[in-house]
Design brief:
14 helices; single chain; Immunoglobulin-like; alpha+beta
Length: 636
C-alpha cells in the first residue's frame, strides 16, 4: 500500500472516531433535569399585586424517575441585606417520571421596606446534581396608616372634611346632632378648651372649631351645608389653615322621604287606576239596573193598557232584575268582583266602566227591549187570531189549541237569571211567534179557500178544505212543520179552485192580519178577496230576525284561585323590586353626589322623585307584559 493510501485510511478512521465521540457526547448531554425557561426571572411586588404566584416549570430528561426539589437561595440586596421570608415553594419536592414536565408554584408576598433582591432558584436532584436560575424580586413600600392624621400648618393649602347630621336638617334648630371627623393637632396643647376657628355657610349659619388638648371638634352646627373658615392653632406659628367642611343628613332621612314619595305615588295610582274606575263602574252598574227597571215598568204599563193581556197577569213581565236578583243583578256582582280581583291595568280596563264586560251587560237591556217588542207583536196576533177563531169556529176554543198553549208558555212572565236563560227565552219567542203567524195566515187562507170552493159548487173541494181546517184546528198541530204541510196542501187546492198567488215581495203577515180583521159576519161576499192574495209561508218565515242589533254573550270566566294567587305574588315581587330600584336610583342621583344634602330643596326633590317614579313603574310593567313576559312577574 502506498503512503497516500495509508494517509487516506488514517484520516477515515480518525473521522469515524470523532463522529462516535460526538454522538456519545450528545447522548450523554440529553440526560439530566432543566428549566423549561432558563431566562432570568424578575418579579415586582407592587401596590396592585402585593401577592403573586409564579409557576416554575421543569423537565426530567433522565431515563428514570427523579425526585426534584426547588430551593430559593441567596436572596439579598446589593448591600448584602438578606430578604425577609417573602417566598414559599409549593410543593417543595416532587417525583417526576422520565420525560415528564413538573410545575412548582413560587408564592411571593410583599413584606418590609421597599428593596430589590437578587438570588438563585436551585433545582436539586436526589443524587446531588442541580441547575441554577437567577431570581430578581422588587418590593414596593407597605403603607400602614396608624391613628388619626395630624393637622400641621403649612402642610396643605386647604383641608376638606366631611360630617353627618344624625337628625334631619328640616328640624333644625329644634333637633340636631352634627358630627364631623376632625384631625388631631400636631401636639397636645395644655390649657382650657379654646376656640381656634370659625366656619360659616352661604346661608348664614356660623359654627366654631374648638381645641381641647390635641382634639379638635366642631360646635354650634345644627344643619347640613357647606362651611368654610380657618383654623389657627396656638403657638409660635400662627399660620391660619383654610378648612372646608361639608355636612349632610344621615342617609336614612332621604331614604324615608323617597319611601313617602313612593307611597304617595301608589295612592295616586290607586285612585287613578282602581278607586275612581270602580266608582264609575258602580255608577254604570246602577244606571244599567235603572234602565232595566224602567224598561220593565214600561212593559207593565203597556200590558195593563192591553186588555185582555194573553200572557199571565198584566202586572207581571218577563224580567231581568228584581232587586239584586235576576240576570242583571248577578251580572252586576260579577262585574264588581272581576274588577276587584284584576291585577293589572289591562284586566281592570276589561272589567271597568268602559270595558267589554260592561257592554255585554248593557246589551242585556237591549235584548230585553227586543223581547218586549216581539212579545207585544205576538200578543196582537194572538188576540186577533183568538177573536177570529171565536167568531167563525164556535166549536173550537183557541186557548186550548197547541199553538195557543205554546205561545202562552213562551210569553209567560218569568225572572231570567242566566245569559243562557235569556238566549232560551229569545229562541222560544222567535219560534212561537213564527208558529203563530204561520197558523194565523194558514187559517185565513183556508177560510178564504172554503168560501171560494163553495162558490164553485164543487162539494168535494169544500170538503177537502174543511178537512184541512179540521187538521189545522186539531191537537196534532204542535209545531210549524205541521202548519207547513197543511199550507202546501192548501196551495194545491188553491190551484184547483183557481186562486192566483200573490207576488213574493208582498208582506204575507200584513195581508193576513188585514184579512183576519176584515172577516166579520155578513155573508159570503166578505170572503171575496183580491185574486193576488196567496199565503207564501216561505216568505213569511224568511223575514228579518227579531234581534238584528242585539248579541247576548256570557260574561268571561275569571281565572282560578290558584292562578290569581300566583299573579298576586308576582305583582308583589314586581313592586318590591321596582321600589328597590327606584330607591337605589334616587339615593345615587340625589344623595350620594350631594355632600351637603339636607336643605328643603333637597328633600322636596327626593319626595318628587318618589312620586313621579310611578310613570317609570308603569313603563317597566308595559315592557314586562309586552316584551319580556314580565320584568319581574312578574306582577307581589
Amino acid at each position: 500500500m502506498s503512503s497516500a493510501k495509508r494517509r487516506l485510511v488514517a484520516r477515515i478512521i480518525v473521522l469515524i472516531g470523532l463522529g462516535l465521540w460526538l454522538g456519545i457526547g450528545i447522548a450523554f448531554a440529553q440526560e439530566g433535569v432543566s428549566y423549561l425557561d432558563e431566562r432570568d426571572l424578575s418579579v415586582v411586588l407592587g401596590e396592585e399585586s402585593p401577592v403573586l404566584d409564579v409557576p416554575i416549570r421543569v423537565v426530567n430528561s433522565n431515563s428514570v424517575t427523579s425526585t426534584l426539589t426547588l430551593l430559593v437561595e441567596g436572596l439579598m440586596t446589593t448591600d448584602g441585606v438578606l430578604a425577609p421570608p417573602l417566598w414559599r415553594v409549593e410543593p417543595p419536592t416532587q417525583e417526576v417520571p422520565p420525560g415528564r414536565v413538573a410545575t412548582f408554584n413560587l408564592h411571593l408576598e410583599r413584606q418590609g421596606e421597599a428593596a430589590t433582591y437578587a438570588g438563585q432558584l436551585i433545582l436539586l436532584t436526589e443524587d446531588g446534581n442541580f441547575v441554577r436560575r437567577t431570581l430578581h424580586v422588587t418590593t414596593a413600600p407597605l403603607v400602614t396608616p396608624s391613628g388619626t392624621p395630624t393637622l400641621k400648618p403649612g402642610a396643605l393649602e386647604k383641608v376638606f372634611l366631611a360630617g353627618v347630621n344624625w337628625a334631619p336638617s328640616l328640624l333644625a334648630p329644634y333637633l340636631s346632632a352634627v358630627h364631623v371627623d376632625m384631625p388631631s393637632a400636631t401636639q397636645n396643647y395644655s390649657g382650657p378648651r379654646q376656640r381656634v376657628g370659625l366656619i360659616s355657610s352661604s346661608t348664614g349659619v356660623i359654627g366654631q372649631i374648638v381645641l381641647e388638648g390635641d382634639h379638635l371638634s366642631v360646635a354650634d352646627l345644627d344643619r347640613a351645608g357647606s362651611y368654610t373658615g380657618n383654623i389657627q392653632l396656638p403657638g409660635p406659628d400662627q399660620t391660619a389653615i383654610p378648612v372646608e367642611i361639608n355636612v349632610r343628613d344621615l342617609w336614612i332621612w332621604p331614604l324615608a322621604v323617597l319611601l313617602v314619595g313612593l307611597c304617595i305615588a301608589n295612592l295616586l295610582a290607586n285612585y287613578a287606576q282602581v278607586s275612581r274606575p270602580r266608582k264609575r263602574l258602580e255608577l254604570k252598574v246602577i244606571q244599567i239596573r235603572e234602565a232595566t227597571q224602567r224598561t220593565q215598568d214600561g212593559q207593565k204599563e203597556h200590558q195593563r193598557d192591553t186588555t185582555p193581556w194573553p200572557f199571565g197577569q198584566a202586572g207581571e213581565v218577563i224580567a231581568l232584575t228584581d232587586g239584586q236578583k235576576g240576570l242583571v243583578g248577578q251580572a252586576e256582582e260579577k262585574l264588581l268582583a272581576g274588577f276587584d280581583v284584576a291585577q293589572s291595568p289591562e284586566e281592570r280596563k276589561k272589567w271597568g266602566p268602559d270595558g267589554p264586560e260592561v257592554s255585554k251587560v248593557a246589551n242585556y237591556v237591549d235584548g230585553l227591549k227586543a223581547i218586549y217588542k216581539i212579545l207585544n207583536k205576538m200578543a196582537t196576533v194572538y188576540q186577533t187570531t183568538a177573536a177570529f177563531v171565536g167568531q167563525h169556529y164556535s166549536k173550537v176554543t183557541f186557548q186550548d189549541l197547541p199553538v195557543a198553549q205554546k205561545v202562552r208558555q213562551a210569553g209567560n212572565p218569568r225572572l231570567i237569571t242566566t245569559s243562557k236563560g235569556l238566549e232560551k227565552t229569545q229562541t222560544e219567542l222567535n219560534e212561537s211567534h213564527s208558529f203563530l203567524k204561520a197558523f194565523a195566515a194558514t187559517l185565513a187562507e183556508l177560510d178564504r179557500l172554503r168560501v171560494q170552493a163553495a162558490s164553485t159548487g164543487k162539494t168535494s173541494l169544500v170538503q177537502e178544505v174543511e178537512a184541512l181546517q179540521g187538521r189545522l184546528l186539531g191537537a196534532g198541530v204542535t209545531d210549524i212543520t205541521h202548519v207547513q204541510m197543511i199550507n202546501e196542501e192548501a196551495q194545491r187546492l188553491a190551484q184547483q179552485i183557481g186562486s192566483a198567488p200573490i207576488p213574493s215581495h208582498m208582506n204575507a203577515l200584513a195581508r193576513t192580519m188585514s184579512l183576519l180583521q176584515s172577516l166579520t159576519p155578513g155573508g159570503p161576499q166578505r170572503y171575496i178577496l183580491s185574486k193576488e192574495f196567496r199565503l207564501d209561508l216561505t216568505t213569511l218565515l224568511s223575514g228579518p230576525q227579531v234581534w238584528p242589533e242585539t248579541t247576548v254573550e256570557a260574561l268571561s270566566d275569571k281565572s282560578s284561585q290558584q292562578v290569581q294567587d300566583e299573579l298576586k305574588r308576582m305583582e308583589r315581587r314586581f313592586r318590591l323590586i321596582s321600589g328597590a330600584i327606584v330607591l337605589a336610583a334616587g339615593m345615587a342621583a340625589l344623595y350620594l353626589p350631594n355632600a351637603t344634602f339636607g336643605s328643603w330643596n333637597d328633600y322636596s326633590g327626593a319626595l318628587l322623585w318618589g312620586v313621579t317614579v310611578d310613570g317609570a313603574v308603569k313603563l317597566a310593567r308595559q315592557i314586562r307584559l309586552e316584551g319580556l313576559g314580565a320584568l319581574v312577574r312578574g306582577g307581589v
